[in-house]
From TrEMBL, chains A, B:
Protein name per Swiss-Prot or TrEMBL: Bifunctional ligase/repressor BirA
Reactions mediated catalytically: biotin + L-lysyl-[protein] + ATP = N(6)-biotinyl-L-lysyl-[protein] + AMP + diphosphate + H(+)
Classification via Pfam families: BPL_C, BPL_LplA_LipB, HTH_11
TM annotation in the entry: none
Family recorded in the similarity comment: Belongs to the biotin--protein ligase family.
Xref: CDD domains: BPL, HTH_ARSR
EC number: 6.3.4.15
Keywords (A to Z) from UniProt: ATP-binding, Biotin, DNA-binding, Ligase, Nucleotide-binding, Repressor, Transcription, Transcription regulation
Amino-acid positions noted as binding biotin in the UniProt annotation, renumbered to this chain: S89, T90, N91, Q113, K184
The UniProt record lists the keyword ATP-binding: yes
NCBIfam families for this protein: birA_ligase (TIGR00121)
Known DNA-binding region: 18-37
Residue stretches in coiled coil: none
């Protein structure tokens, strides 16, 4: 019921009477009052004025299930939300749900991860209270070889959501890092369970540094948070809901086209490597060139010094800007 | 110790003295005697002759850990063997071990599956006492897009092992069904957990109908067993060990080449579709042609009526012989 009351309070600019809430939710005045008191304890500022009713004036930065659900404006992305104060890793939990038959769009969110995962099993710093750790479970109907492109779909969704919420010019470092002022603010980890010609499920994990105040020394040069870059705190549930809104829309476009064509222009507009010099590091083969953007399947188009074009696949190479991380 | 005693008895054509066993295993005569008695109870026929020692004359058809391990001649394939009398599905168990850090080559074997899986989540009949249900856990170092070829590597290994053990002309129906007299005797289910450019693990499940006496009516026309086709019973551990021996060898060749080139000729020799008329059923597109064999990446090369060549990928189509299942 918390989700519903928060949703109704949010939808109304002015006051909502206790009676209205009772009628809509078909519960007693006492039940409504109890939830309002609970919400206040959790940090919500709710004005209660006699003969007018309740008015939500401020929400806390808590990643609770009710808070996230009441902010979601999606059909399937984030339906349901599974929230845990602490877990090993949201990707691990989402994969378990995937094995157990969990539904397309299920979103696992946690305030803290004890075994956060980066790529290739590397760790991902996951303290509580400051970051978004969430993983969405997907059951695509396309073939497994299309799945790697989903990570670019999510990168685009996160970059757009960060821009919308903060007004900052977040960009994408190909293929799927989100950067602000040349430092990384978000990592994406896409994992797939598949048969040869059939996807069991895909899990896309998103870790966004929102209000983190400092980073371990070894990553300070490459990692940052929205708070560090903007000098102010941001509401995580807001941003998480915006990511889901963009992702649902872009996923639908991608799934219909079965390639990145409908998203290619948008992605390339946000691509920080675009028209920049990069180094392509292939095993046993290294070359420089200018990144021109992605093609329809998400490969990076690179023009080499001699004018020839190479399209490079994320699996085979890593790309480094000539100057620093980007 | 059971495994070791069985292994030693098998390695010796004649008699092995109790003292030899004690020395090799560094245990007491009583301990050896106890294991011998246990083995007899399990159905092993072991002659014990005074002043000569023990001689193994016959092994039962039991899929026990000791029996399988004592027959294995591999380095890593089947090391270790995890045996369970009954489980939901060996693929499910192997995937769990994969998530938990299990070792490359781990082989999960069960005498009975309560939730045996075919492709795309379909069921797989798994009664006890007659079939091989086993799944090998792999941690390949190549890129995820190479993994689908592994299913052809296993198909080849099973077909060769069946030929070696039974002397029957088992063949392969592209891409990975093993057939005998135009009916299916083995199904292979390959599942992968991967990041974009990194394989977490691959599980290849193998279900072989060995001594099955009859099949449910709905699959009688397409399924058979070694016992039905040959009129006699076969020892499952023998066959399982032979599959592992072929698989380890072929996997090593594949992993080095990173394609099927070194196995292509062998595979095509066993391909029952070769030089036969087939129907290719693509969504919204159907055509006939002659199957010529697989190419280096496992695609089926088809010559159409007009002489043109198409190479078809297993993910996109199904292939049907003009006459019946094959």
């Amino acid at each position: 019921m918390k989700t519903e009351i928060l949703t109704i309070l949010r939808e109304n600019e002015g006051y909502v009477s206790g009676q209205q809430l009772c009628d809509k939710l078909n519960v007693s005045r006492t039940a409504v009052w109890k939830v309002i008191e609970q919400l206040k304890k959790e940090g919500y500022k709710i004005e209660a004025v006699r003969n007018k009713g309740y008015h939500l004036t401020e929400s806390p930065d808590v990643m609770s299930q009710a808070e996230i659900e009441s902010r979601l404006e999606t059909e399937w992305a984030g339906n349901p939300v599974i929230y845990m104060d602490e877990t090993d890793s949201t990707n691990i939990q989402a994969k378990k749900l995937g094995e157990a038959g969990g539904k397309h769009g299920t979103l696992v969110v946690s305030d803290r991860q004890t075994a956060g995962k980066g790529r290739r099993g590397r760790g991902w710093e996951s303290p509580s209270g400051a970051s978004i750790y969430m993983s969405i479970l997907l059951r695509p109907e396309f073939l497994p070889d299309k799945a790697p492109m989903l990570t670019l779909v999510m990168a685009l969704a996160v970059a757009e959501a960060v821009q919308e919420v903060t007004g900052e010019a977040a960009g994408i470092k190909w293929p799927n890092d989100i950067v602000l002022n040349k430092k990384k603010i978000c990592g994406i980890l896409t994992e797939m369970s598949a048969e040869i010609d059939y996807i069991n499920h895909v899990v896309i994990g998103v870790g966004i540094n929102v209000n983190t105040e400092s980073f371990p020394e070894e990553i300070q040069k490459t990692a940052t948070s929205l708070a560090i870059e903007t000098g102010k705190k941001w509401k995580r549930p807001d941003l998480a809901a915006a990511v889901m809104r963009y992702f649902e829309n872009y996923y639908n476009m991608f799934a219909e086209a079965q390639d990145l064509k409908p998203l290619q222009e948008r992605y390339n507009r946000l691509l920080v490597n675009k028209d920049r010099e990069i180094q392509v590091l292939e095993p046993g083969h290294e070359f420089g060139g200018t990144a021109l953007g992605i093609n329809e399947t998400g490969e990076l188009i690179v023009r080499k010094a001699d004018g020839s074009i190479e399209e490079i696949y994320a699996g085979e190479v890593s790309v480094r800007g000539i100057y620093g991380y980007v």
